[in-house]
């Protein structure tokens, strides 16, 4: 017989795949002697059995559940379904990977009319008994039958209003009985059935609901955002209830063993007295900071501190712990690695090394590359901030600054973001349905909820600015307005600026500046640099980008796109003249002007490089992008070139291409007009000479784009070498330089051994290589790739993460064949993929020399290269 159900004592933290993260950790905590209410786990195997078995919970599994239920009765001395001494349980989902808020939990299961009465008699505390029952009806109705929770909340508010109560805790036992009747009515109206009184039936339905929730749309979106495999399934935890809603010596809370925003070594969290379950995160009442527990229940507080220390040392990571206090006794209900900001991730990892808990290598593996974006995020411009007007402040829930237009609905936020608007999502509180809207917004602002509210936790995970619990603002989601304390109103589309590090909210737009990095970040990056094998270069065309990249740790330029230098407003008329010139003479006279401009560009880059490699790609213009479009531009050009407008138009027509992407670009242009590349090679070498004479060493790499055959390269190389040698003769000196090629056409991969006879280096242009291998145009693919993901035809965007089986195999072939000709051929990557951690791992395995990426991704690439070198793939699960 297969085993589907496990006692907590039968599991361990290493059984996440089978028992889910929550269950595995409940098991681990039970086994190290922490006060965990007893229970058992229905494994993910059971979930898969249910899903593959046409959503049928097999009798075999349910029988096994019953066996464990009777063990639980023995352990607790209570009886499931009894009227006198009822055993109540929580039914808690738990996937192998932490999915906060994605799956739903039902508390107080086992209650029915008579058990609630029995419990009230037994404990002499009718209020708590009925409070538990009304919570159960609501949660069960919500989770199992999807009855919208606002229906229950309305009934609750009605009773509170009628009695002039502010807080739920003011409800008396009689009020609660009335509420229970109202809830039962809501339930039967929504489902057409009475609220189920049979506890076993309640349990069966709840288990099924957890299994079903694995496939609910929120969970599906979350898994897609976080690359979690859908076939894992979720486990179900059945656990004896403890009660935080039994008066002022009871309560419930959440604590982190370190500050998850800053990483500082201090216990951080919140709790609520006389509360149950998710009251803390639901933002109904404002929770108290954990430090206040010291005053209220010093013994419990000390035990909690000890528990934090014990768990952190046991797991050797910062923990996020859920606890409940029942009549002065502490119970631990969950522990997991705490979600944290990038800043906190780095600080805790580095501190753990200094505290001797983990090695440097472990620290490197622990920081999620994707998260680093956060650190490189903008802050407000100090001078701009001086004029900023603070209109309110809330809790600094997730750091970073943001400015944008306010939207009140997740859906509208998504639509606005699609129109290119910088969005700030404004809600009273967020819920899992808002995930996509949150993902597409620049920042999140809520009026309710604390530092551990849904909005705060999710925003931190996403590395987004968030201000939570800003109670000074009155947010009306229906009317789409924010009312300030002054009575002033803000409407959809108005601008706000948020500082997630201070909690301040400013009216209007405030200019942002780049984030500063240093301290712990530099220390960790230093360790990463020591571990990595790949060099990290930057794709930069301007001195500003290059300088920024050097601050981020770039080791040279891997791609300088010279056509980007041509886009400059002052230059474009000359570029147009160059393209439209009808004779060599005409073209050469414009080229002389362009050459001087290019020399200024290149010498500046060489100076900044201070001897580091600078790879310059010769012109690869999509011609149509440069041609004049408006009448005014055409007239201007006609005037500059001494032509008539019709003459210019005719020439433009002659140059029009059916498919510019596959057209007269790259080296093909230089085959027709070699003078263009000759000019660029001259500009490069002449600036190299100038900078060399200034005492700075220079070693330019000249890169020829879009090579398909060796003979193209031979021809162009000969032209270029001629001008370079002329410069050397004239200057009576020689400088080192390399001429190589971009490998971006499948044919070049296949004939890489031949091409290597002419090339001193290869640089894989994986963007074009992906386009040409798939035959997808990158600009058009966005229109249909969404369907590919939806229909599971493609798992990932091949322009983001290298398609190992196809494009990657071509790269590998080129590497192997290139090395057949030159064992030590210098090879790198300069496509988007050069900054993508998964792709970097692949390039590391191929033993390339470097990857090159945009400035902001340089630190990510450094860390990813180190993680690749250290071997094991990082586990998202640990964070
Ligand atoms: P989530 O995965 O959303 O965190 P949990 O299963 O952890 O959901 O349940 C949410 C909350 O419900 C817990 O933090 C805890 O406060 C409460 N809870 C769960 N099980 C029990 C229990 N056996 N006794 C008391 N409270 C419980
Ligand atoms: Mg939840
Ligand atoms: Mg929990």
UniProtKB/TrEMBL annotation:
Its cofactor is Mg(2+). InterPro entries: ATP_grasp_subdomain_1, PEP-util_enz_mobile_dom, PEP_util_AS, PEP_util_C, PEP_util_CS, Phosphohistidine_dom_sf, PPDK_AMP/ATP-bd, Pyruvate_phosphate_dikinase. Transmembrane segments: none annotated. The active site is at 454 (tele-phosphohistidine intermediate), 830 (proton donor). Mg(2+) binds at residues 744, 768. Residues 521-868 form the PEP-utilising enzyme C-terminal domain. Keywords: ATP-binding, Kinase, Magnesium, Metal-binding, Nucleotide-binding, Pyruvate, Transferase. It is an enzyme of class 2 (transferase). NCBIfam families: PRK05878.1, pyru_phos_dikin. Belongs to the PEP-utilizing enzyme family. This is Pyruvate, phosphate dikinase.
């Amino acid at each position: 017989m297969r085993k589907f159900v496990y006692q907590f004592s039968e599991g361990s933290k290493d059984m996440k795949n089978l028992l889910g993260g929550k269950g595995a950790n409940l098991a681990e905590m039970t086994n190290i002697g922490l006060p965990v209410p007893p229970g058992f786990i229905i494994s993910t195997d059971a979930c898969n059995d249910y899903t593959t078995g046409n959503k049928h919970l097999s009798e075999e599994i349910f029988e096994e559940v019953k066996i464990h239920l009777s063990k639980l009765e023995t352990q607790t001395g209570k009886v499931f379904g009894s009227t006198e001494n009822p055993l109540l349980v929580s039914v808690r989902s738990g996937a192998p990977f932490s999915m906060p808020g994605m799956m739903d939990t039902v508390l107080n299961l086992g209650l029915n009319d008579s058990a609630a009465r029995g419990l009230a008699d037994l404990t002499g505390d009718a209020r708590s008994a009925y409070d538990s029952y009304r919570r159960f009806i609501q949660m069960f109705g919500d989770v199992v039958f999807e009855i919208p929770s606002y229906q229950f909340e309305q009934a609750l508010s009605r009773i509170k209003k009628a009695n002039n109560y502010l807080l739920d805790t003011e409800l008396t036992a009689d009020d609660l009985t009335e509420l229970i009747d109202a809830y039962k009515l809501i339930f039967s109206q929504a489902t057409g059935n009475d609220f189920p009184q049979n506890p076993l039936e309640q349990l069966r339905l709840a288990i099924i609901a957890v299994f079903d929730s694995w496939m609910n749309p929120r969970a599906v979106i979350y898994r897609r955002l976080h690359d979690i495999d859908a076939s894992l399934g979720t486990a179900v935890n059945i656990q004896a209830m403890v009660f935080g809603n039994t008066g002022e010596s009871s309560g419930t809370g959440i604590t982190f063993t370190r500050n998850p925003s800053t990483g500082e070594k201090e216990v951080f969290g919140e709790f609520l007295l006389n509360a149950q379950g998710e009251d803390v995160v639901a933002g109904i009442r404002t929770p108290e900071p954990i430090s206040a527990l010291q005053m209220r229940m010093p013994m419990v507080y000390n035990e909690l501190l000890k528990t934090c220390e014990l768990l952190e040392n046991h797991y050797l990571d910062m923990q996020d712990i859920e606890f409940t206090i029942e009549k002065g006794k502490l119970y631990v209900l969950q522990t997991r690695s705490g979600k944290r900001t990038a800043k906190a991730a780095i600080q805790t990892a580095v501190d753990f090394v200094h505290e001797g808990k983990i090695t440097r290598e472990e620290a490197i593996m622990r920081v999620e590359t994707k998260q680093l974006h956060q650190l490189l995020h903008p802050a407000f411009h100090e001078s701009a901030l001086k004029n900023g007007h603070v209109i309110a402040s809330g809790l600094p829930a997730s750091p970073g600054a943001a400015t944008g237009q306010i939207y009140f609905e997740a859906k509208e936020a998504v639509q606005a973001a699609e129109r290119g608007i910088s969005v700030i999502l404004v809600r009273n509180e967020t819920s899992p349905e808002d995930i996509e809207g949150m993902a597409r917004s620049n920042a999140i602002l809520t009026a309710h909820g604390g530092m551990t509210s849904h909005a705060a936790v999710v925003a931190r995970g996403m590395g987004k600015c968030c201000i939570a619990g800003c109670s000074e603002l009155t947010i009306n989601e229906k009317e789409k307005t924010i009312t300030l304390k002054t009575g002033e109103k803000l409407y959809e589309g108005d601008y706000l600026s948020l500082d997630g590090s201070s909690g301040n909210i400013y009216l209007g737009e405030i200019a942002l500046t780049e984030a500063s990095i240093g301290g712990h970040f530099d220390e960790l990056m230093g360790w990463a640099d020591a571990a990595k094998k790949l060099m990290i270069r930057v794709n930069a065309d301007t001195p500003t980008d290059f300088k920024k990249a050097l601050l981020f740790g770039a080791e040279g330029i891997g791609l300088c796109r010279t056509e980007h230098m041509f886009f400059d407003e002052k230059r474009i008329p000359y570029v147009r003249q160059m393209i439209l010139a009808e004779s060599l003479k005409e073209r050469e006279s414009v080229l002389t002007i362009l050459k001087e401009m290019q020399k200024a560009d290149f010498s500046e880059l060489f100076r900044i490089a201070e001897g580091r490699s600078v790879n310059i790609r010769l012109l690869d213009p999509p011609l149509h992008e440069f041609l004049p479009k408006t009448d005014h531009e055409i007239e201007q050009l006609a005037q500059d070139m001494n032509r008539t407008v019709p003459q210019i138009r005719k020439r433009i027509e002659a140059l029009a291409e059916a498919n510019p992407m596959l057209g007269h670009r790259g080296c093909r242009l230089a085959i027709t007009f070699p003078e263009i590349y000759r000019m660029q090679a001259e500009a490069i070498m002449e600036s190299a000479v100038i900078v060399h004479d200034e005492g700075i060493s220079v070693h330019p790499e000249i890169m020829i784009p879009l090579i398909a055959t060796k003979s193209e390269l031979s021809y162009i190389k000969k032209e270029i070498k001629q001008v370079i040698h002329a410069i050397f003769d004239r200057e009576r000196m020689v400088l080192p330089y390399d001429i190589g090629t971009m490998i971006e056409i499948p044919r070049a991969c296949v004939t890489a051994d031949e091409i290597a006879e002419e090339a001193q280096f290869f640089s894989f242009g994986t963007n074009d290589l992906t386009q040409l291998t798939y035959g997808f145009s990158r600009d058009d693919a966005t229109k249909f790739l969404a369907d590919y993901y939806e229909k599971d035809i493609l798992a990932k965007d091949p322009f983001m993460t290298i398609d190992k089986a196809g494009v990657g195999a071509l790269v590998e072939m080129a590497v192997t064949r290139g090395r057949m000709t030159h064992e030590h051929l210098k090879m790198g990557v300069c496509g988007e993929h050069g900054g993508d951690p998964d792709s970097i791992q692949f390039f590391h395995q191929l033993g390339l020399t470097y990857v090159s990426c945009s400035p902001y991704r340089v630190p990510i690439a450094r860390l990813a290269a180190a993680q690749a070198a250290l071997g094991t793939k990082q586990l998202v699960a640990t964070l």
